[in-house]
Amino acid sequence: MLKAIIIDDEVAAQRSLEILLQLNCPNVSIVGKGSSVNDGIKLIEETNPDIVFLDIEMPQANGFKLLEQLPGHRFEVIFITAYNQYAIKAFKYSAIDYILKPIDINELTLAVKRVTKLLKSNVDPRERYAVLFENIKEIIPRKLVIPGKENYSYVDLSTAIIAKLERETITFTMSNGTVNSYENTNAEIPSLLTQKGFLRVDKGIMVNLNKVLKFKKTGKGSIVLEGNHTVKIGTITKGEFIDQLTRHNKNQEK
Questions:
Q1: Is residue 131 in a domain?
Q2: Is the pLDDT of residue 30 over 60?
Q3: Which of these, 193, 185, 190, 69, lies nearest to 133 by C-alpha position?
Q4: Under a CB-based contact definition with an 8 Å cutoff, are residues 29 and 5 in contact?
Q5: 236-246: per-residue pLDDT in tens?
Q6: For the purposes of burial, counting CB atoms within 10 Å of the CB of 5, is it exposed (0-12), middle (13-18) or buried (19 or more)?
Q7: What is the pLDDT at residue 215?
Q8: pTM
């Protein structure tokens, strides 16, 4: 049985989440509820929970302050948030679980399953939360967290030029020529890369549009990237690539 606490300034929201957990997540036992960051810190020290369900927007101090005051924590956090889509990107990039308000039962049960798996793996969560804080500040983060079966890897997308996606691995070519492969268990990685400015140009191949130096129209077309790396296009046409690159560059100027 996993011990959990709920920190939310709305008592009705606390009770609603508690009922949903009782009905749908029998492996979770609520051992405490609080309405503020101070309540949360006290409860964590008293109960040593496995999971903290943490509201972000609370009076006096937001949920991030709780984690900042507990740098040595070993519990997992499931954020309860009504944040906008840009902040949600930060959670996804950091591989941090979150549930949008109003709470959807399927999202809740999936989040609990993911966190349960993480707790069994004994992966230290602290680095992921450090990345989250950085990503929240930047809104659209540079660092991407890639979850594997036993650990997490961190990629600085500001220096990544090519991503090669295979069934359970992803390989990044960096602008300095370094090639790094990672085990990957997150099906959302292609979508996250697209949001960060990567474009799929062939089967399993995505390029960073921020790193394009020129486009050669000979043959089917090829892209020259920073570091003089060349990638041929395959699943898109020359016109489609040029349109996507032009649109991306215009968006970057805004």
A1: no
A2: yes
A3: 69
A4: no
A5: 999 999 999 99
A6: buried
A7: 94
A8: 0.56
